[in-house]
């Protein structure tokens, strides 16, 4: 049953060229995301109370990413030109993935705080607003539907709004006032991922070479999604281990 759940690749899946390092990265990251999903879902058995929900969401992030990576891999590998070293950039699949997984990651900040104290729904909605502005701005600019620079700035504004909320806004204040030391430490690591880890994406946005762009996005995704989930896992299972 579990194996069937993760049987992503279609029968006519495009074969990878041994020299296609970007296509290989798509495949390797897809497998890493699958492994992370299985791990997070199984570890819910060790989590307690509301922390189970946080760990399930972490597994959903990597599972959705794995699904999309199978299609992104096929799109790239199926159009790969060995002479130029470039394939078709899966912009639409990439942003569909982010439109699902990034809001789920933002929900984690709300769930972490909700597991330890009563928090207002305003935190949730502000994080969602920042996420949508960031992603829609990025997609419109990168897909050529609008001015590249203008919509990059709009996307960056959404990201900065998220950073304000988790570093200086209500979410940060609730954590500082109510969270135990272990949760505060993990919250701080998650903030580092959202700030420093997510800073990789703007670099990829401006890459003219499709191979470099997708390789940078792929590296950022595997670090940010799996590392993000691993921090959630460490909080969720800490009480059981203690």
Fold and architecture overview:
The chain has 242 residues and is mainly α. It has one domain: Rhodopsin 7-helix transmembrane proteins (Rhopdopsin 7-helix transmembrane proteins, Up-down Bundle), CATH 1.20.1070. 76% of the residues lie in helices and 0% in strands. It is built from eleven helices and no strands. The protein has helices spanning 2-5, 21-43, 51-78, 91-114, 121-142, 148-167, 170-178, 181-197, 200-205, 210-236, 238-241. The chain is globular and about 55 Å long. The two termini are 33 Å apart. Residues 1-6 have low confidence and may be disordered.
Detail the topology: elements first, then pairings.
Elements: H1 2-5, H2 21-43, H3 51-78, H4 91-114, H5 121-142, H6 148-167, H7 170-178, H8 181-197, H9 200-205, H10 210-236, H11 238-241
Helix pairs in contact: 2-3, 2-10, 3-4, 3-10, 4-5, 5-6, 8-10
């Amino acid at each position: 049953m579990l194996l069937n759940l993760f049987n992503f690749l279609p029968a006519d899946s495009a074969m990878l060229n041994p020299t296609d390092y970007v296509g290989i990265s798509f495949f390797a990251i897809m497998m890493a995301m699958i492994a992370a999903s299985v791990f997070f879902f199984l570890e819910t058995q060790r989590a307690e109370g509301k922390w189970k929900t946080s760990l399930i969401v972490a597994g959903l992030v990597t599972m959705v990413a794995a699904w999309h990576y199978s299609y992104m891999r096929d799109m790239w590998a199926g159009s790969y030109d060995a002479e130029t070293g470039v394939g078709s950039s899966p912009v639409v699949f990439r942003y569909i993935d982010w439109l699902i997984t990034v809001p789920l990651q933002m929900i984690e900040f709300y769930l972490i705080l909700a597991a330890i104290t009563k928090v207002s729904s305003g935190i949730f909605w502000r994080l969602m607003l920042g996420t949508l502005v960031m992603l829609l701005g990025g997609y419109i600019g990168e897909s050529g539907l609008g001015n590249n620079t203008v919509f990059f700035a709009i996307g960056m504004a959404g990201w900065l709004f998220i950073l304000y909320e988790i570093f200086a806004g209500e979410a940060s204040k609730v954590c500082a006032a109510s969270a135990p030391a272990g949760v505060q430490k993990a919250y701080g690591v998650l903030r580092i991922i959202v700030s420093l880890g997510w800073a990789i994406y703007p670099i990829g946005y401006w890459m003219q070479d499709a191979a470099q762009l997708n390789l940078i996005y792929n590296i950022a995704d595997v670090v940010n999604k799996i590392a993000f989930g691993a921090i959630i896992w460490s909080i969720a299972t800490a009480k059981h281990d203690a």
